[in-house]
Amino acid sequence: MIGRLAGRIEYRAEDHVLIDVRGVGYVVHCSDRTLGALPGPGEPVALWTDLLVREDLLQLYGFLTLGEREWHRLLMRVQGVGAKASLAILGALGADGVSRAVALGDWSAIKAAKGVGPKTAQRVVNELRDKAPSVMALDHAGASVPLADAPEPAAADAEAPEPAPRPAAAAPARAEALSALGNLGYAPGEAAAAVAEAQHETPEADTATLIRAALRRLAPKG
């Protein structure tokens, strides 16, 4: 499977680009949003890709982020959503917008994509809602660890009992969860409180688990 391409753009078309990779040209289909963010012909480019394989078809799709590619794969699993509809949804909302709409159950935002009806939009939200935190975590996996959370070196001759080890993933998971919730539109204060409660309850939780737990706390009551 071709998972990533890096080369130069040979030409751009309405729904795809041709990328020259060391003399081999790859036709890569992209959403309108992704096409709009790509450089012009002759410029270097790198895209995450997904290969659609059928009896009569081999077609590459290109994405700027891993999160965008993962949403494409998930959307394609929903009944009534093919490659064209998936790219329309991603083109209309972007990866962050899809994460926001699905996580918050906003099927009307999905319906705004060209060619996507209300029933299909509702299926997208209902079937993929539990997947949103994992995809959000994927795109925030590069978040840096705050310096203040770095462990202090222990003295070589210290004889005091060692403190209970803090889960190594706690600090980055917290930062990534806060960033993801901020992208969903939650205020920093309420996001921080929800993440803190979730992390206190499950200190070893990874990013996706923290996001999922925080969203449950932030959901409207009643």
TrEMBL record:
Residues 147-172 are annotated as: Disordered. SUPFAM superfamilies: DNA helicase RuvA subunit, C-terminal domain, Nucleic acid-binding proteins, RuvA domain 2-like. Residues 148-158 have a biased composition (Low complexity). One of its GO terms (biological process) is DNA repair. InterPro entries: DNA_helicase_Holl-junc_RuvA_I, Hlx-hairpin-Hlx_DNA-bd_motif, NA-bd_OB-fold, RuvA, RuvA_2-like, RuvA_C, RuvA_C_sf. One of its GO terms (molecular function) is ATP binding. Residues 73-92, 108-127 form the Helix-hairpin-helix DNA-binding motif class domain. Gene3D superfamilies: 5' to 3' exonuclease, C-terminal subdomain, DNA helicase RuvA subunit, C-terminal domain, Nucleic acid-binding proteins. The keyword DNA damage applies. This is Holliday junction branch migration complex subunit RuvA. It comes from Rhodosalinus halophilus. The gene is ruvA.
